[in-house]
Amino acid sequence: MTEKEDLQELYQERYDLMRERVTEIAAEPELPAPYGAYFLEVAQFVQQIFDVYEVLARGEEGRTLTELQQRHDTFYGRLAEDVYEHSYLNPAYAVAELGVSLGGYLSMLYADLLSLVADAYEQRLDLLCIWSELFVQIYGLFVEEMQEQHDPDTFSEESCRWIASNVKDVIYWFYHDYSEVFVPEPIVAMIEPQENLLYQTIMTADLSDNRYLYRFGAPIGENELRLADYLRRLPQEKIEAMAHTYTEGYRKGFEITGKDITAKRTVKIEAPMGFERVTREAIRQFEQMGLHATVAREATISLNGRGNGKRSYYSTSPNRQFDYDHKDDRAYYFDKSFVERRLEVLRDTLEKHKEAAAAYGGPAVVEVFGEQPFEPLNKPENAAYSEKQNTLNVYHASESGRITNQYIPGDEYSFTIISYPLPEIGSQFEEIFQATVELNTLDYELYLKVQQKIIDVLDQGYAVHVTGRGDNHTDITVQLHPLADPSKETNFENCVADVNIPVGEVFTSPVLEGTNGLLHVTQVYLFGLCYHDLQLTFADGKVVDYTCSNFATPEENRKFIKDNVLHHHEVLPMGEFAIGTNTVAYRMARQFDIADKLPILIAEKTGPHFAVGDTCYSHTEDIPMYNQNGKEVVARDNSCSLLRKTDPSKAYFNCHTDITIPYDELGDVMVLCEDGRQLPIIREGRFVVEGTEILNEAL
Q1: Same domain, yes or no, for 410 and 475?
Q2: CA quadruple 587, 592, 595, 598: dihedral positive or negative?
């Protein structure tokens, strides 16, 4: 018997034991109220997981769409808003029912156990064993203490404290010890060519009806079903053209930066479920370039960042409040020892797979937009990082980025990113989809020429002054790098459609020192979250104050921004200043009334924008970058990124968030020159540089 067969036999023995124990708990928990109800609900869920695992192991997938949907709803129906409110998955309900000391931990455990759905579909016997053993072990703590009680119908306060302390320890050591299992999973799936369940389904499933979507083991809703329906009706040449825009942008990313795509072996596909007709064609086109596509599932457990945005191969969320409630669940076990353990496993994994890491070309990303605007409800019962943990978060992100860059150097790989709407965007979905396809294929040469005229004016100045109008109170001056030889150097990259689709911006990395003022937007959506009256104050290029009006107290507003815009950093620099030129995108947003639904990728092209965090050249600052006219873009660094030469731990922030002032809130964009001239780029929201008037037609 091989080592693999021995291991499988061992897992089967463990599974059989857990199967028996979970069945007993699901029949009648031995615990008093209120804990018996919790363990009954979760045990029955795990039992259903085991049932489906065994059905799929026998090859009995189910034949009808109705059967598949019913099985899906058995698992994910608990996330429906009306069900969730009274579920132990909801931290507020769990704390109310189970107490402050235990409710949060048990809600977090239940949320992570939802990952078992995907594990069952992927036939991961090892993960089914690991998670069910954790559940049974925690149940055993309650039983052990109950047996010590004089009154078996209740737990004393002292007993609850003992159980809570032990639950905390068990959970902590579970995530600490099993980091060696959980941390490598997404890394290996990203860089090692493999035909996992996701890849096989994309490439071999019958896409003629929607049954194939339920093979993924992921939440499938109206967005996924209707998107697949719509793409199914498009002619093959349209599908091929959409895929080509995406794959050609990826190829151009290597070409324009002088990187060798032939040295790469893999490209990671990041795309929505329901998009398989285009994704399959894109994978074929990448294969013609010599690149094998890798497909990794989106994060399903807290350790890997579940709830913190949609990446990898994903479906839209069935409940964004659930995501928000649990996005910081790592706080329950996040400490220095855990962080060092995770970094150690990250380093070991990349070392073990260093050849594959070196051959990894980067991600090819399809974003979606159109979900109804979401404003989260802040719940005091949710997990929250302490200040000490926030410091650790920053350290962890910095070290993870540094280690990863050693094995996947930022100056050797590329990416591309493109967006399409979801059916949820409204009754005009098909028209918006076609408008987006046209947006993604705007005239490259036209924008190249128009944007160069803007750059020619910008390069005459030492700074740019941007103001808002109406209710927008922006008043900020951005300092530019001095040009030693303007005939050969430029501050702004002329960005057309390659890695960043659609076309439409010129951008720079500002000089931090001398960049001062207020950035204000009356409403903006960043990574799916809405901000009202977002204000960031900059001094010498760094955010020194911030506020919004989402919540009742200044403290809540500041925490919301610190957690989700500053990403737990005390201070972030301005990593980018850009002028978006895609007035067609702006018009599309107004025509269909979808400005509040546009992704950052498109929204950033609809006005001047400012990014907080790293520069656009993070980890690639030392690679010469040239515009199409041969001028070198010299503004690739700032005083923070230059610290990579002396103190690398302080050079990068591992985040980059674009905040756009839309044209209807924009006053003037003026170039300030050393000789006192003020050269307008935009006045009262309209382009005024000679040769750019065509941009105003869409306005």
Answers
A1: no
A2: negative
Q: Which residue's structure tokens are 């947003």?
A: 589
Residue 699 · residue 583 · CB < 8 Å: yes
Distances (CA, A) of 413 to 12, 362, 408, 637: 41, 6, 7, 19
Choose one of 379, 401, 417: the last residue of a domain.
417
Are both 394 and 293 inside the same structural domain? yes
212's CB contacts (< 8 A; 6+ apart) are: 201, 205, 206, 276
In the block, residue with structure tokens 């060696």: 180
Answer for the pair 473, 520: CB distance below 8 angstroms, yes or no.
yes
Both 254 and 155 in one domain: the answer is no
> What would you report as the CA-atom Rg of the chain, rounded to the nearest whole angstrom?
26
pLDDT for res 152:
62
Within-domain flag for 620: yes
Nearest-angstrom CA–CA distance, 670 and 689: 11
Backbone angles phi, psi at 27, to 5 degrees: -80, -45
Grouping H, G, I as helix, E, B as strand and the rest as coil, residue 89 is coil
Inter-residue contact 222 to 423 (CB < 8 Å): yes
* Nearest in space to 41 (alpha carbons), one of 96, 124, 131, 113: 113
Block means of pLDDT (10 residues each) for the chain, 699 residues, are 78 95 90 91 97 91 86 96 97 96 97 98 96 97 82 76 94 96 96 94 96 97 98 97 94 88 97 98 97 97 92 96 96 96 97 97 95 88 94 91 92 91 96 95 90 97 97 98 96 84 93 98 87 97 96 93 92 96 92 89 90 92 89 96 89 92 94 97 96 91
Torsion of CA 624, 626, 631, 636, to 10 degrees: -50
Tell me what pLDDT residue 675 has: 96
- Picking from 259, 257, 250, 261, the residue whose alpha carbon sits closest to that of residue 628 is 257
**Integer angstrom CA distances of residue 550 from 309, 320, 529, 662:** 20, 17, 11, 20
Q: Which amino acid is at 373?
A: P
Let me know whether 410 and 469 are in one domain: no
Cis peptide before 186 (omega within 30 of 0): no
Say whether pTM exceeds 0.85: yes
pLDDT of residue 351: 98
Are 168 and 199 found together in one domain?
no
- Cis peptide bond prior to 662, omega within 30° of 0: no
CB 433 within 8 A of CB 275: no
Whether 120 and 195 map to the same domain: the answer is no
372 is a domain residue: yes
In total, how many domains does the chain have?
3
Domain housing 361: 190-417
Same domain, 589 and 494: yes
Shared domain for 350 and 221, answered yes or no, is yes
Q: What is the distance between the alpha carbons of residues 190 and 193, in angstroms, rounded to a whole number?
A: 8
Q: Is residue 477 part of a domain?
A: yes
Note the pLDDT of residue 151: 62
537: left (phi over 0), alpha (psi -120 to 50) or beta: beta
Strand partners, 547: 535
Report the alpha-carbon distance of residue 456 to residue 3 in Å, rounded. 66
> Does any domain span residue 423?
no
Inter-residue contact 364 to 269 (CB < 8 Å): yes
Question: What's the pLDDT at 317?
Answer: 95
| SS3 annotation, 5-27 | HHHHHHHHHHHHHHHHHHHHHHH
